[in-house]
Amino acid sequence: MGDAPLLGGRYRLGARLGTGGMADVHRAMDTRLQRVVAAKVFRSGADATGRERFAEEARILAGLSHPGLVTVHDFSASEDELYLIMELVEGRTLADAIAAGPLPPEHVADLGGQLADVLAHVHDNGIVHRDVKPSNVLIAGDGKAFLADFGISRLAAAVARMTSSGIIVGTATYMAPEQVSGGEVSYPADVYALGLVLLECITGRVEYPGAGAESAVARLVRAPEVPVGIPAHLHRALIAMTAAAPERRPTAAQSADLLSGRSTEVIPRIPAAPQLPPEPPNRPMTQQLPVAEPPNRPVTQHLPVAELQQRRNRRPLLLAGGGLLVLLVVLIGFLSVPEAPVSPTLPPESGPAGVARLPDDLANLERLVRE
Asked: Cβ distance 112 to 196 under 8 Å?
């Protein structure tokens, strides 16, 4: 191994860590700085235009700095050598973790929050990843997530001599609907892909399996099936992130808030109302415009002050007169009520009953006649 030629005259390649469609990743030793790095060596060449695009995007990646990004240390875009030298992350890919079985929902939410925060930083720098998938996510030994192969679809496009003719590059399994239909691909496509990756972490299966075309078209027919038994904030985030319309998806920063539970909904941006220019000094007071009266309502008349004062003075007299009138009506009504009939009473007994009392009654009658 010590006699093997150095990559770029500096990097000694070691064991192969992984392989892809267009490149192999090796553990390598930087002989100048004496540190272990990851070397991604592309197997095919590119023309001058492709190499220039490769170099430009490599510089963009090298200019990004975030704890969740695999740092790019060096690159070469020469005719003989085309490679990237990156930070080596000791761990496994998210694809390997999913192959072992579904992940706990809370762990998925934490993982998704980390990756969404990385995408927010990337998008703030004007870059779209376009190929977010489990094999491009590295999990370090301490559980920290890294977004690797950032922009690799662009780099692969340069290597494969693709021009900016609207050709869509990415993995069909995680493509957004607008990528499949040939629409504009921007930041929402990364958010959608991350939503499918997190959904796969929960269920342990690919949401849209099948061959390239079959998998790509399936998302145009049905929406992803998000389990209902997961935590509410995770369920809410996945539903929003995998919306069919790009404009309905949250941004990467909003997705991080939803996944962490810091936010419960996505509030659309409301443009601020235009500010009116300040009024110039010594401007006459603005006169209040008359308010339109409702239909069939008489217009309020303004009385002179003297007449209004007279009406106020007469008010106590009117109230007193009205009170006397009410009292008089009540009294008349009370007097007009007829008295209740009196039950007849029997005359008191004046003596013994029957024939024994007759002489006394005749004597009383005679006395009354004389009088």
From this structure: no
